[in-house]
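We treat protein structure as text, and this decision shapes the records that our systems exchange. The tokens are whole numbers drawn from a learned vocabulary of local backbone shapes. One such record is reproduced below, unchanged from the form in which we store it:
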Amino acid sequence: MAFFDQLKSKTKEMNSQLKTKTSQLKSKEFANGSMAMCALIAAADGSIDAAERQKTAALIMSNDVLAVFPPEELRTKFDFYCDKLSKDFDFGKVEAIGTIARLKGKQDQGRAVIQIGIIIGGADGNFDDDEKKAVKEACFAVGIAPSEFDL
């Protein structure tokens, strides 16, 4: 239970940090990178079932940081990346990571996308190894050391 409490506390802290930076994060690249990250987390085990996709979409819509974007745009982008990952996981992953990598020169936005991935991954109380691996790959894509996030 201590691990779950620690994860919950860390997630709450990250969400709070992101809220303070919301105005700095309002860009199309950040929205796209966030949806690519969310799709990677949903597909971290190699597939996305309908329930997982729906649950992740609900988490996206309830995230205060992402509330600055039109919900339909977020949904369309999330579905786009989920469809790519579902059709061909490896190529979908390359495209999603490539989208996240566009934030490499924008450290605040890259860091925020990583934090969103951790928040989404830990929302069910179990930030599993597949989800951690997806977040690590995103860290490398934006040039941030995974150790900064205890990964």
Notes: The chain has one domain: 2-149.
